[in-house]
Amino acid sequence: MSVSPSLNPHVSVDCVIFGFSKETLRLLLIKRTVPNSLTELDDSYYALPGDLVRDNENLDEAAARVLKELTGLSGIFLQQFQAFGDPMRITKAKDRAWLQGVRQDPDARVITVAYMALIDSNKVQIEPGSFSKEAVWLPISEVPELGFDHNDISEGALMALREKVQIQPIAFELLPEKFTMSDLQTLYETILERDLDKRNFRRKMLNSGVITALPEKQHGVSNKPARYYVFNRNLVENGGLGFVNLKMEGSFTMFS
Amino acid sequence: MSVSPSLNPHVSVDCVIFGFSKETLRLLLIKRTVPNSLTELDDSYYALPGDLVRDNENLDEAAARVLKELTGLSGIFLQQFQAFGDPMRITKAKDRAWLQGVRQDPDARVITVAYMALIDSNKVQIEPGSFSKEAVWLPISEVPELGFDHNDISEGALMALREKVQIQPIAFELLPEKFTMSDLQTLYETILERDLDKRNFRRKMLNSGVITALPEKQHGVSNKPARYYVFNRNLVENGGLGFVNLKMEGSFTMFS
Questions:
Q1: Nearest-CA distance from A21 to chain B in Å?
Q2: What is the pLDDT along chain A (256 residues), one digit of tens a residue?
Q3: The CATH number of the domain where A232 resides is what?
């Protein structure tokens, strides 16, 4: 016998979903329609996908449910990075109008636990569902004013991503299974917002054991075809490489 | 006019407070007495200091309040590291007995946001107060079974600390203002649970700009007196060193 789980009205999860395409880091945002529209022309806005936590699930499960419902994907990189609990999180008129349409107690204080997801955006089929009729990938430089404190949460996620890519081999989650060395360097440079030396990057990456070269090269390109590489997921996840440090150029090293 | 702030019964903060003395990493734990004691001999247990979040404060403020009330200290290193929200966080008989004595709704699901504090344990005067009549510094290897999921939270804090000391110069928060190179190396070795090469550690630390040698040396020691150093707090906090990486020996470096 299954009982419909009830929602905890005081705790939510929000997902900052990163993708990478056309050499640009992007966020997957949903469009929310305000039920009691304030004006005809101004009845929707963008927000992070999220939901209240159900009584029978833990925080990780709630975040995975949101992601699965929106993208159809499971088993992807999804990591809690920060809880946001300012008493003044809900101040904007649109947020209040939206809450009045969907919550029993629209004035209840909600603390949200924020998650970061990294996905290969080519794999995603957005599923119009209970969260939104529309979702869109926007470049991080073009993210508009979002609902609630979702701009703060998105910026927090970007800071956390920059820190994490330097200590964990996670950036690969944003690439397709096969990628060129140039794809990989462009991704790192985009996340870190700085240029990296090409020869040094290539040498370090190959020496690291994190990637393996394939015999296969690009097809149908006008310039010299580049070699494809794959991420050694099994080796990394089984700890075969030990601690992996992906440190920025120019930074100080204590124990090399 | 001041109004007594009410508590949010669904969200708490817990503080994992690290100290370092006698070459040992320690946790500051409080002793809780179960009001409706189950047995005469077994009426108390250890737990992390924590409290429900008040309606008028954000999460950081709640954690700082707990720390201040227990230790008298403010303005010390205090950083959120993870939220814990398993539906089954409260299962132990002692926890339930304690909750019945202090909470309006002892069965309410509480999600806790965990903070890590790093302090020079010599500075702390434990203030018996509303949290506990007794608090104690226990070596991390001797932490007993704690209330709720506080063992999981403590282990999560230790993992987070090991990661953070490799990317941020925060270990100094655990030392007195003046320390010897040997004190510093022992601290790093204790946190990382591995030996580090002495000459390499010394050279890296001095080259980093993170510490400055004082003219002063140890007094009244039987062996050769060692030089004292101080942490360059202002330089580090003002970003004068850029990104500081405190990486373990033997780990892989991507962008040096």
A1: 23
A2: 344 467 777 899 999 999 999 999 999 999 887 765 555 546 788 999 999 999 889 999 999 999 998 888 888 999 999 999 988 777 787 787 788 777 777 777 889 999 999 999 888 877 766 666 788 999 999 999 999 899 999 999 999 998 888 777 889 999 999 999 999 999 999 998 888 889 988 988 888 788 999 999 988 888 889 999 999 888 777 765 554 555 544 444 344 3
A3: 1.10.10.10
Q: Look up tokens 């925080």; give the residue.
A: A59
**B12 and B123 share a domain?**
yes
Is A79 near chain B, with CB under 8 Å? no
Q: Choose the closest CB to B245 out of A82, A205, A253.
A: A253
Task: Report CA Rg, chain A.
Answer: 20
What is the ipTM score, two decimals?
0.82
Q: Is residue A246 part of a domain?
A: no
Are A136 and A212 within one domain? Answer: no
Q: How far apart are the first and last CA of chain B?
A: 58
Residue B189 lies in a domain: yes
Same domain (yes/no): B50, B152: yes
Of A59, A209, A251, the CB nearest to B242: A251
What DSSP state is assigned to residue B122?
Answer: G
Chain B contact set for A109 (CB, 8 A): 8, 55
For residues A94 and A153, what is the distance between their CA atoms, to the nearest angstrom?
18
* Domain membership of residue A149 as a residue range: 7-164
The per-type count for chain A, helices as H runs and strands as E runs, is: 6, 12
How many domains does the structure of chain A reveal? 2
* CATH number of the domain within which B150 lies: 3.90.79.10
A14 membership: H or E segment, kind and range: strand A7-21
